[in-house]
Every structure is written in structure tokens, then in C-alpha cells.
Amino acid sequence: MMKEQPVVELRGVWKAFDHHEVLRGISLVLSKGTTLAVMGGSGVGKTVLLRLIAGLARPDTGEIRLFGRNIERLREEHMLALRRRTGFVFQGAALFDSLSVFENVAYPLREHTSWSEGEITDRVHRFLSLVGLPGTDSLLPAELSGGMKKRVGIARALVLEPEVVFFDEPTAGLDPTNARVVGELIAELRSGVCDTAIVVTHDIEFAGMVADQMAILHEGQFAAMGTPGEIHSSNVPAVQAFLAGELLEN
Questions:
Q1: Predicted confidence band of residue 3 (pLDDT cuts 50, 70, 90)
Q2: Residue 69 belongs to some domain of the structure
Q3: Residue 33 burial (CB count, 10 A)
Q4: Among 94, 156, 162, 211, which is least packed by CB within 10 angstroms?
Q5: Quick one: pLDDT band at residue 250, thresholds 50, 70, 90?
Q6: What is the 8-class DSSP label of residue 141?
Q7: Is residue 12 part of a domain?
Q8: Beta strands at 164-168 and 86-89: parallel, antiparallel or unpaired
């Protein structure tokens, strides 16, 4: 029986900006059915890592495989087919201000499918209901709360039923109640729409709700990677400092 290939695989990935090395030889393997929370303080390169994996940026050196295909030098037209199999939830939701909630969620369907208007409507309504926002079709992003924007962003990322979803700080800027709602939603999605994800977050409690694997990014490398239990019992100083809240602003 053939072993299933990883959804995401990184080998020795480096990335620098203005001679500042943000990522220093990162390697990881994400198998289907796994949700990995990548944690660390502000400015350690969590979002950079996620953008590299999603093909939205290129590494300086190293290898990145998405669904078994090397993407680090892949042309944009070839990336599109792979990108259709992924979903990306941006930190600020990144909704189109001039489009209604309905049209924001419908956008990937209009871009990547030739579905009829009826099929698009049914799919959009299904996913707006899934994220707890039925009946919001005509609202504009300016009329939504922060938590609602995040949920519309999640619906848009999921509407093509991707094989893996990348979440960039999905609880950033939310109060504890809304953060919990988003966390519960993502945890629920794992048993339904999409069972494979990478979640970038500095929120330890949230990570514990959604992830079965955790990694702590520190000084451009993973200080530790493992199950939530293994991370919480780690004796690595950088991990202990992060868990104690001492690295959040470094």
C-alpha cells in the first residue's frame, strides 16, 4: 500500500528581507487530516511562512511542495490550478469593500468555475449558513462587525471546498467571545468541510481548540514541534518563554 504524499512539505526554506533573515532553514511536513498551529511572538515570520506555503511569496532558497509539486519557482499560471485546491483566510479578512457579502463569497466560484447562477447561489447560501451568517447577502463589509468579517472570509476561503486551508491570525483583533466563536467554527469544520489546515496564531488557547499539532517559531527556526501535550510539557527555554507570554512582543 502506497504511503499518502504530504499535503505540504518544506525542506530547508530560508527567507530574508533587507538582509534580515526571517526564516532560517525551516522544514516541515503536513499530512492530510492534520491541523498545525504555527505559533510565536510578533514579527517572527509566521505570516511570511504561510504566504510561502500558499505560493503568495517565494523563498530565497529551499524546497516547498504543495500536493507533491514543487512551487518555489512555479509560474503563476501553473500555480492557479494548485491554488484552487487551497483556501486562504487573511488576517484582516481582506474582503472587497465594494462587494456585498454574497458577492465576496461568490467571487472564487465566479473566478474558478463555470457554474450557473443558481448553483452559485446555493453554494454561497450553504457556506454563509455554515459560518452562522444566513440572511446577510446584501450587507457590505462596512456594515459588519470584526467577527462577522472573519466569518465571511472563512466562508469565502471554503466555498470551493479546498483540500487544505491556511488561516493567518484568524482571531486577531477579536474580543474573547468572538475569538471563541471563530475557534469553535474552525474546530467544527475539521470534521466536515476541510480536515487539513495550517493556522498561524499567537493565541495559545485558540491553538489548543483547533490544532492536533503545534510548532513554535523562534529566531527563524522551529524551537519545538509536536502535539499540544508535548509542546506544553517542553523544557525548551524559548517554548517555555512563549507559553508564559514573555515573547509576544519580541
A1: low
A2: no
A3: 11
A4: 94
A5: very low
A6: G
A7: no
A8: parallel
